[in-house]
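Dear support,

I submitted the protein below through the web form. The confirmation email said the job was done, but the results page showed an empty box. After a refresh the structure appeared. I'm attaching both so you can tell me whether what I see now is the final result or a partial one.
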Amino acid sequence: MLSVGLNWIYMILTTFCAGYGIAYLAEKKLHYRIQGMDSILMAGLVAVTVYAEIFSLFYKVGAAANGILLAVCGAVFLLLRRQICQRLGDWRREASAVKKVLLPVLFLLWAYFSSRGYMAYDSDLYHAQSIRWIEEYGVVPGLGNLHERFAYNSAAFAVNALYSMKWLLGRSLHTASGFFALLLSGTALDLGRTWREKKLRLADYAMIGAVYYLVTIWDEVTAPSSDYLIMCTLFFIVIKWLLCLERDGSAAAGEKLVPYALLCVAGVYALTLKLTAGLILLLVIKPAVWLIRGKRWREILLYLGLGLLVCLPWMARTVVISGWLLYPFPALDLFPVDWKMPAGPIAVDAAQIKTWGRALYNVSLVDMPIQEWFPGWFSTTLSGMEKLLILGDAACILLFVGYAVFSLIKKRKENLDILLVLATVISSYAFWQYSAPILRYGYAYVLLVDLLMAGVILQKLRRQWLLYALVCLYGGYKLVMMGDYIRGNYLIDAYIWQQDYGSYELVSYELGGITFYRPAMGDRAGYDCFPAAPTQPEIELRGEGLGLGVSPVQ
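What the results page shows now:
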C-alpha cells in the first residue's frame, strides 16, 4: 500500500507538470483555459503515455525514460512555477471543505484496493509479460509470433511500464488501474453540488454511472488490465463533454470549440487503450462541423495533427509487434516484413475472443446469429443486476429512437447535441454487444446508455428525486459491502509492497541459445520467468539476442 501511494505521488507530480505544460500551450495558442485539476492530470496522462510509446520504439522503458521525463517536468515547473502556484492556490480556495476531506480518503481507499485483490486472469496470461517486454526491450519485431495476445498492443501497457519502477525497486509495480480509478473518483466528487442545488444535470447521471462502475471494480484494480483504464477514460470523456454542453450558453464563442476538439483527441487516446473503443470518435462530428463550416483549415490541421501524434506511436508499435497496421484485422496488409504474423492464427484468435465473450467456447460458432447465442449468453453469464442493466439498455435504445424521431419531426435543434452523445454511447454499446460482450469490456457503454436516457426522461418529467432515492439505497448497500471487503482483506500482507503477480510452475526450453519458458499446466506464466508464453511456438530468432525479434518458421 505504501509503495502504491508513493508511486501515485510520483505519477501525480509528473502528469501534472506534463498536463500543465499542455494547458499553458492551450491557453496561449488556442485561447482556452483548461480548468479542473482532473482535466490537467488527464492531459498529462495522455502526454506521458504517448511519450512512453515513442520511447519504447527506440529503447527500453526504464531508468532513462524516467530520467528524461523528470528533466522535462522539472523544466516545465521552473518555467511556469508562478502560474502553477497561483492555480494551486485557486484550487485550494475554491474546493469545498467536504472535497478537501474526501480526496485524501479516496487516495487511501484506492491505494488499499490497488495494493491487493483479484488479479485478472489475462494479467498473468499476457499483461505481465507484455509490460516486462516493454521494460526490458521497448518493442521487439514479431513479438506476436511468440504469443498472439502480445499483439493486442494497448497503450495501457506502456504507461504501466513507465511507472512500474522495476529499474529502481527490483520488482514491477502495476498501479495505473488504481490511479485512473482515483482520477475518475475525483471527477465524480462534483456530484456533491447536486445535494445543495437539488438539481441533476445530465453530466451528473454519467457521474452516477461512473460511481457505480468504480464501486464494482474496487477489488480488481490491482491488475494492470487495459479494461479499467479504458472504461475510466470513456466515463471521463462523456462527463466532461456533457459539462461543456451545459456551459456553452455562457462560454465565449471562441472557447466553445476547443474543449470538444481536445476531448476528441482524448477519444483517440481511448482508441489506443483498446481498439474497440473507437466509436467514441463519433463525437468528432460536432467540432468537425463547426470547423468545416467556419473554414478554419489551420485549426483542422492542428487537431488532426494532435490526433495523429497520439495514435501514430501506437500504430507503429502494432506494426513492429505483429507486422499488421491494426490487430486483429489482417485485411489491412500494408507492410511486407519478414516478422509478420500469419493471417490464419489471427483470425482464430479474434474468433476465440468473440465466441468466449458470447459464452459459446467454440470458434466454429463465431458466425452464429445473435438471436441464437444471445439467450444463452444472457441467462448464463450475467448476474441479476447485470440482466436488469441489459434489459434497460434494450428499452433505452427504443426510447432513443422515439426521442430522435420526435426531435426531427418537431425540428428541435437544441436536442441535437444530446442526440449525438446518446447515439455515440448506443453505437458503442451495440458494437460491444455484437462482438465480444464480456461485461468488463463494456461496462461504461452499458451504464451510460441506461443512465443518460434515464436522465433525459427524468429531466422532462421532473421526477429526479426517484434517482436520488435509488442512489442513496445502493450507496448504503455498497458502503456496507466495502466495509466487509476491507474487513476480509486487511490481514493480507500488502501494506508496504503491492500484491505481486501470480507464481506458476514453468518448464524451460532453448531457442537460439536463449532460455524460454512455458507453463507446465494451464496457460498462465506470470511475470517472474522471462521470456514466457502459454505454449512453445514454431518461431526462430531474427538475429543474435531477443532485441532483433522473432519470425514465424517458414
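Response: this is the final, complete result; the empty box was a page-load delay. The first strand starts at residue 506 and ends at 511.
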